[in-house]
Design brief:
Strand content: under 5%
Helix content: over 70%
Shape: elongated
Number of helices: 3
Largest sheet: none
Length: 72
């Protein structure tokens, strides 16, 4: 019984840690996308974003979509 509780507690802690790490990564990605939106507002190019900011195609796509929503 005691071992089961320890395993359950360990499992819950691991789950909490995973959720925390996902949240941190999500926040970092949102910041990267926000930076890209600002970069594109200031006439930055996709090539420059890839080179200077090491941006992924997916982040660039999302930033461009957000920028077009802002400009409408």
């Amino acid at each position: 019984m005691e071992g089961d509780r320890k395993e359950l507690l360990k499992s819950m802690c691991n789950l909490s840690q995973g959720i925390k790490e996902q949240g941190i990564e999500q926040g970092r990605r949102e910041e990267r996308i926000s930076t890209l939106v600002t970069f594109f507002k200031n006439d930055g190019t996709v090539a420059a974003a890839k080179q200077m900011l090491n941006s992924s195609d997916e982040d660039i796509k999302i930033a461009k979509e957000r920028l077009s929503m802002i400009e409408e």
